[in-house]
Amino acid sequence: MAERVLLPRRRLLRGAIAGTGLGLLAGCDALSRSERFVDVLGVAEHLSMRAQRALTGNRLATEFPESMISPGFRPNGSVDPRTPEYLALKADGFSGYRLRIRGLVERPLELSLDALRALPQRTQITRHDCVEGWSVIGKWQGVPLAHLLDLARPKPAARFVVFHCFDDLGGDGSRYYESVDLLDAYHPQTIAAYKLNDAPLPIANGAPVRMRIERKLGYKQPKYVHAVELVDAYAGFGAGKGGYWEDQGYDWYGGI
Ligand SMILES: Nc1nc2c(c(=O)[nH]1)N[C@H]1C(S)=C(S)[C@@H](COP(=O)(O)O)O[C@H]1N2
Ligand SMILES: [Mo]
After folding, report:
1. Which segments of the chain have a pLDDT < 70?
2. How far is the C-alpha of 14 from the C-alpha of 170, rounded, in Å?
3. CA 218 to ligand 1 centroid distance, Å
4. Residue 178 C-alpha to ligand 1 middle, in angstroms?
């Protein structure tokens, strides 16, 4: 399943490199460890994103019938956060939880789970593809991020949305984070989800609230989200690449 998802992306990347005459460089071993090669990959990544957008437009991810929901949604990465702020909220059944929308917005928001439940909802049965090579189909319910952004009113300078999470996956005191651009943030299948398969979101899958950004790979589905921050650039967060796994070298666009 992952091969089917990933191979076309590799081919697309190679195609993007070849299409710009950079293909010759890509084959050169001496360059692979140099700064220059990293630059070339950066360019290719950018072209790949534009190529993907050109090919797929802003289409919807496939949605599936109830009969195809996987028995059990395999968790991955952090499955039981131990950070103090998370443990404190969990001890109280998340009654003190607030989802914050902040940064470059006219009207910062703080929403309890009850407040989220009272907003317009979306339900979607979609397939989650992890780069490790497995996929699983689940049913998500939550509030479209587009609706939350409409309420918060992004300022003209806002270009990206950074998602801040409670968990310290790397065990170094930092926190998992992710980011997408406004086009993906406003995508109709981008939701702040608090239900999985008709039940409250389990701890292992990101309770109390995680994002579903259905045009993206698994690592761009942040769990344990406590803040959605509108920014003009994501370079100032983490190691500057736009997400926990991006900081380890994964592609920022991460499209499927
Ligand atoms: N906060 C947080 N979000 C995360 C992760 C994580 O470790 N921490 N892992 C990512 C990865 S690699 C995958 S595949 C999915 C797994 O989601 P699941 O546990 O619901 O299957 O969450 C993503 N979001
Ligand atoms: Mo993943």
Report:
1. 1-46, 56-58
2. 31
3. 6
4. 11
